[in-house]
């Protein structure tokens, strides 16, 4: 083959082939028109059949023209061209396999095939890219309006590009696997050719759909092609750059390239590729990554996926990435920390790690722990998730448990909701995977820990004593030498007159045995015999060891030297086979065995200490997680509930508090929370352990009964809702119900508490299935309401509560007009109830009143004509009181009784009798109006509707079969009229009931009216009737009687509010607060003028009264029954109450109020104004606590901007530096935005002159600093800098008059003097005024102030007002006249009626 006169150079762009780059470079001579392409393509096909793949050398211009006009060419021509080029390249690949094996390949043939290869590959790869671009465009065009992609469409010829790609890539892979270097003369294949082939792969990977599962084979084909390029053609550098670029621009390629790199490293041995890629990413500038959000996301996803697939290889290159841990990009920090976690899980786990691996593991764990306190919440959250995974896989060393648990507990208070949620998950994982015990009770662990620590201390003391006893022979010799020397001297030089004792000492058979004997004598401190035996042994064993040494010197020195050698020579000791000293047998045991036992004991104590510390941390976390159950985030609440379920399963006693605390969440409006609570109780209580149904039932009943121990009424109601849900779903089995009946009837042995719990549980179940109680009503009555009622009123009360479920469950359903369920008056239930109430009336018991209330409620709910039964009970009890009053005077009054009349020889009644009577009267009055407005009104409505239905049926029967259009129209009109008549009838019935209450119930002819003078007498004379229980009962009875009639209420409101304000008994004030709240709902127009006195109880010195007032005001405000503006700051002050329950109540109030539109936003300025007033008595730190809570509800941008403007303008009216600081602190609590900043700039004049105060200045800087961290726009940053400069100038040097004019010192020509801060009042807790001060204010003015009058102005007006008559309780002298004991206000002190509140037509009951 003759050599070609040109050489084909791969162009950088297609246009380069049209321009000549040199004399021997191929140039496209002519770009063919569209009309010529089909014919020329056919010629190329024919030439290919003749010349093979080398035909491209003469027809390249045709194919170049096809690529040039690709968008305009018919699809059939494109497909034909692609099919033809596939055949050409495939044929060329087959031919090259034999050509390249030919060692005699001539240079001309080599050049020819090289040019043909370049041309063929150029055309084919460009066709691939062109089809890929068309595929992307058609994919976008194929989206339907909903955004869902349609099925892949094929052309009429059946061509589908996605099916054609894979064979093409496999063909190129086959081509690259040849030894193409020979075509380049044995040199390296030019980089442009490899880039040409691999470029098609990268183009295919750019399509987002390539990551779908259906394209897995295509991805693998691309990976293998690139692997061949990497292994055979040194494509690493180009691939590294290309991959990092694509990761930066295409998010979907991260998992694809992670899989590819993993494949190359494991199957192709290209581990260096991992290092190159990580080094390239590690060298990225952290500041640049902060600006490149999409690139960071791709890099982070790639690192995470890669570390999960090949953690060991990534570990060896991890150091190049560590600089990004200090960068600003949280996504990169998350990725690197995730990679570390993967290495800890897959590579650096287990006990067999080498020292270097242990060090790396510890470094990674240190890094993870450090980032638990990262500045970014997403990083903290991710680290908690990683630790959760590590703990679940048991890869966390035991030595790290305490540190990580402590950090997790600290994160529970994180301001990020996600962090707190993940902290709960981590603690739950620690519990589920803890290595200590299945029971983690601190109490159970403390006792064995104390016992084992004592044992360890004993072992240590014993070992110390033993060690002290094991002194070296040299030390012992030094100690005994002085005495021994003196004894030798004494024996060798006896004093005159001393007689030597006759001693019988025998020499042993051998020198060694004799030496042994001498040593034994020395140890027994028998120095004389030891010396004598030594003298004899020296003579007997002359010249023999050990008696041959130390013979020089005098005799004393010689004996001392021999004894020293005998005692201290270790070789001699070793030669002694059986030492006579007892310690010789024990020393080896002491030296070897005890240390092993000591180590075991130390390990046991350490284990118990770790378990106890872990249990303490979990217990510490319980209170925090318990508070989180009422967060606004649904996911956090659900995690908190799941955590308590886990803790309960590990036997932590404090978990029961959390389980009870989650009960109110059953009323949550969020279905997810409600279902989580049900699921939690289902797991805790409906899956008890036991071998039989009976055992499981006993376990379930025992667990549920434990929940009700010392439980509040609210807790029991919540538990009842849960149990009724379970009963309705048949999740509580019949054996449980049978066991409860057995306990109630005492067929099974149980305590009184268990019996009472059984009745309560039966009542709860009756809410779901009333037949549980209905079928056993006689059993309940005969057993629970027998003559033993007075022995256990609580049991009888629960029996009444259980039976009442029959009334609540028999309400008619919508659309049904059935008569209500009622029992006849002669039923044994009412006979037993009447007997129980009247019998217990004369017995002193604090439990009688609650039982009586339950009995009266049950009678009114179930009896026909309940007023008759209750009238008989009331008459019987009154008769008993009268008989007691008429008893002979010789019977002394009981201790603690109050006279029923003015003292002076009259008979007296026991206090408890009067208390019982008043309680009965008040309860009957209340139940009577409830009965009228609910039961009677509903029955009247039912009968009316029934009558209307019967009339309608008669009308239908009387109508003719043939109805004209006119009659149809008349009937429609009649039905409409009937509807109007029905609405009017409702009003008529309500008016009838209201008229009965107002005019008849307390009429002089009625029974209740006979007790009114008694109630008023006791209420008007608190000094005379000073018993707390009696006063509370009288006050409550007065409140209930006021509920009956508007006229009676109006005439006695002064008395009621006087007692509410002046009474010294917290029980009275608390009861009257509840009564006043009910009256505000029933008679709002009457109570509205007294509203300030309701708010005044929020500052009551008694915690119980404040809590009651908070509850009442919460209901009234949320129901729009009282005015909010003006006094709502009193509710805000409860946020700093010393009692946690009251603080929680206040938080709940504002949380509910925040759901009522812009309520808090509208009230905030007034609250700030009142609480920042120095006369209010709220400390500065307390003010900030309140504001932090209230500003957390401001979430809308418009509200924020408006508040910024209002707060800035309020600086003009601020009088003290304290108010300046308060206002500036409020500004820091707002999430400032750019528009808010502009509002601040517009109102700069308002606060410029206040910036000299350092606290004010710092607050503005803090607000700007937080805004700076959240903005990215240069314009906004410039505004912030400008504002900071103005702040700085005003703070340091003041403002120039031309820039910022100062505020005028006068308004309307008058100069406003700066007032000195008022002297702080004495407060209780943090913000409470003493009762005396509150009462003193009330003495000054008991009239509702006019609106929009400040407290300061009101105080000034009061100082100039005339002196009011003093109102006092006369409790000093019992013989005072009755008119002096009256506690009512005078007529002129009664608040005037102001703006009435409109009421609905129908009066609502309690």
From TrEMBL:
InterPro entries with a match to the protein in the record: ARM-like (IPR011989), ARM-type_fold (IPR016024), CND1/NCAPD3 (IPR026971), Cnd1_C (IPR032682), Condensin_cplx_su1 (IPR007673), Condensin_cplx_su1_N (IPR024324)
Gene Ontology biological process terms in this record: cell division; meiotic chromosome condensation; mitotic chromosome condensation
Domain of life: Eukaryota
Gene3D superfamilies assigned to the protein according to its UniProt record, in alphabetical order: Leucine-rich Repeat Variant
Span of domain Condensin complex subunit 1 N-terminal: 76-239
Biased composition (Acidic residues): 1371-1389
Annotated region (Disordered), positions in chain: 1357-1406
Cellular compartments per GO CC: condensed chromosome, centromeric region; condensin complex; cytoplasm; nucleus
Keyword Transport: no
Domain Condensin complex subunit 1 C-terminal: residue ranges: 1068-1227
Function: Regulatory subunit of the condensin complex, a complex required for conversion of interphase chromatin into mitotic-like condense chromosomes. The condensin complex probably introduces positive supercoils into relaxed DNA in the presence of type I topoisomerases and converts nicked DNA into positive knotted forms in the presence of type II topoisomerases.
The protein's name: Condensin complex subunit 1
Source organism (scientific name): Platysternon megacephalum
